[in-house]
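Dear colleague,

Thank you for sharing your sequence with our group. We've completed the structure prediction you requested, and as agreed, I am returning the results in plain text so they can be pasted directly into your records. Please verify that the sequence below matches your submission; if there's any discrepancy, let me know and we will rerun it promptly.
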Amino acid sequence: MRRIAVTTAVDATVDVLRDEILDVADGEWLGSEDDLLERLGISRPTLRQAARLLEAEELLVVKRGLNGGLFARRPSTDAVARIASVYLRAERTTVVDLARSWFLLLEQSARLAAEAADAEERACLAEELADMRASIAPDDGQALFAATQAFALKLADLSHSPTARLFTRVLSTLIADAPANLRPVPGLASLSHTKGSDLQRVAAAIRAGDGALAARNIRRHGEQVIRWLVEQMPDRTL
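Please find the predicted structure tokens below.
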């Protein structure tokens, strides 16, 4: 027996307002409550329920009083990352799966950064990495790990890919929220420990605009880390 999906007035209002929000600038005034009631032809309870749902999505700000009303809010990667990381933990995501996805994203981000970022941005990446390494003691695992996470996020930014930026942030949030004994597991900390540093090779390849070489350096290291994870903790979840 086929079921017919019924769209409620609240759902329809959410859909209309969400489309409007995504078409305007952050902070733009959508109208007062009375303005929207008249324009959309809905009841006050329907509008308020829809507004609460959009506030939960962090797409709307409701201000009361003089000069109040409903204001658009552009979604942030941090907000989406928090929700997605909760979902991945609820799905009992394994460390191996996280590492595989992490290195795929890192590989693609490095390739895109080499090809999409301008020469000044690419040079800054190499210089920032050198500064980070110079300021961290070789045996400071937590600092090294934090530095490699920062490097990965910088790569995603330089890729100029909203998709790479979002999902790198999702996995970074998941790693950062994991118990301390799991944080180094995806292997990024060991990148900074390696003499001749894989990260430095990646940064040098990006600086030269060689996306294929940058991706290859990350892929080689990722394969080593994933092999170790499969042997040591194949079923470990976050």
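Summary note from our side: The longest strand covers residues 60-63.

Kind regards,
the structure core
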